[in-house]
Amino acid sequence: MANKDKLYQYNTQQRWKVFLFLFAALIAAASLFYTDYLVKSLSKSERTKAEVWAMSTRSIVTMPDVDDQFISFVYAVRDSLSIPAIITDEKNNIIFWRDLDPNKTNIKEHLETDTVNKQLTYDPVYFEKQLATMKRNHAPIALHLDTGEKWSVYYRDSNALRQLRIFPYLQLSLIALFLIIAYTVFNSIKKSEQNLVWVGMAKEAAHQLGTPISSLMGWLELVRTKFDAENDSILHEMERDVKRLEIVADRFSKIGSTPTLTNHVVYQVIQDFVQYFRIRTSEKITFEIMGDKSVEAKLNVQLFDWIIENLLKNAVNAIESEGKITINIVDNIAKEEIFIDISDTGNGIPKSNFDTIFQPGFTTRKRGWGLGLSLTKRMVDYHQGQIFVKESEIGKGTTFRIILKSNLRYEPTQV
């Protein structure tokens, strides 16, 4: 029942993450949709301004002699509609423009007649580029003159509209960056607090185990002396189990501390533990250790035994009746790494769980807290190594791979 509660809590957390992600995506979509609506509205408004400006320009060109006051009104209307635009004739020659760079011209005569702006430069390429941009942005507005000529008015979006187009993406990027930083900080604080709680509980458990373990060792010595059973095999195995409890207590006392790593032969360390573990497992499960017997790595033997123990226990639990567990040690000389593959012939793991099985609280067993592989990954990290599911097939078995740094250094052969 407790396992179902933990699995339910884990699934609830996953659902909340999905919900929050979908909610954030909905906000982003709403922001983009509304901004797109504003952009289209402003674009339509600028199109209207461009059409009014084109009509007023046409009126000025074709207007007969009328009241000066009316002419001034038309000029005022045209000049009030600020928008970058270019007018071309039927031969695509630029004959008029507005709201472009005031220091440039595509008409050479302007250089001689312009007495106000002494910095005016002849730059027809600039106007050709602006015209090409305007042609890509919007369809032209046709002007039909009384003389039969046809002019085309091209325009581009104003700076305000162009900035509005990119504003939501900039806004969402800044919000996303802030949320990522905030999530990282708060998640780090949360993990730090959880680590402190786990470290405190582990050290307290080690402290509480100390007294009964010492008492058991004393009782074993008393039984040996009283019944003259110095070489009794049962008492010998009981003593090994009590010493194992001492090791477990010592492991818990060292949680939260930086482990001391010393040089060891990997094959020998694994073989010593498997010999202890094998006689406490069903006879229907066989063990095989193979591979390089001499490769060395820096290990904390107690923590490394714990790593192997957790993986072997998972392998045993995955085998329903009888099967085989294989440990293969390979020295990758080129990468200066050691591969330790632990394979079983158990039920297998779905690919969707390859990463989640290392998360605290995740378990598919009826009993257990789902902390074994999480602790295993952390202890592998202590050894500056990696652990992952190399391969798995439902009904056929699973292979976990541990990667450690080798003490051997590869030196290429000099040619």
Q: On the 0-100 scale, what is the average pLDDT?
A: 80
Model regions low in confidence, pLDDT < 50 over at least 5 residues: none
- Count the DSSP helices: 9
Quick one: biggest sheet?
A: 5 strands, mixed
Shape: rod-shaped
- Give the strand tally: 13
The ordered string of helix (H) and strand (E) elements is HHEEEHEHEEHHEHEEHEEHEE
Class by SSE composition: alpha+beta
CA-atom Rg in angstroms: 40 Å
What share of the residues lie within helices?
40-55%
Spatial gap, N to C terminus: 67 Å
- Estimate what percentage of residues fall within beta strands: 15-25%
EC number: 2.7.13.3
Keywords: ATP-binding, Kinase, Membrane, Nucleotide-binding, Phosphoprotein, Transferase, Transmembrane, Transmembrane helix, Two-component regulatory system
Domain Histidine kinase: 204-408
Enzyme class: transferase
Can you describe this structure in just a few lines?
The protein is of the alpha+beta class and 415 residues long. It has helices at 2-62, 68-80, 110-113, 124-137, 159-227, 233-254, 266-278, 301-318, 372-382; strands at residues 85-88, 94-98, 104-105, 121-122, 141-144, 150-155, 262-265, 285-291, 296-299, 323-332, 337-344, 386-393, 397-405.
